[in-house]
Amino acid sequence: xxxxxxxxxxxxxxxxxxxxxxxxxxxxxxxxxxxxxxxxxxxxxxxxxxxxxxxxxxxxxxxxxxxxxxxxxxxxxxxxxxxxxxxxxxx
Length: 91
Known about the structure:
Layout lengths: L2 H28 L12 E8 L5 E7 L2 E8 L2 E9 L8
Antiparallel strand pairs: 1-2, 2-3, 3-4
């Protein structure tokens, strides 16, 4: 293997890495069909609180509702659900 072959191999590697980088940037910008980005998300965790070693409290927002969930090693339970209160000017 002489110097021209080594340069050709490293040049091909650089081109492949550049193409992978461009593809990553394009996926981040335009996304994949069926996978929604930040603004199109329906589910978000508003806040969490540790209740004990194995228990955690979650406030989850989904479709205009807020749900209070408690998780434990045995599973999860919905404690309360309420419509989302939008912040507006006081009347």
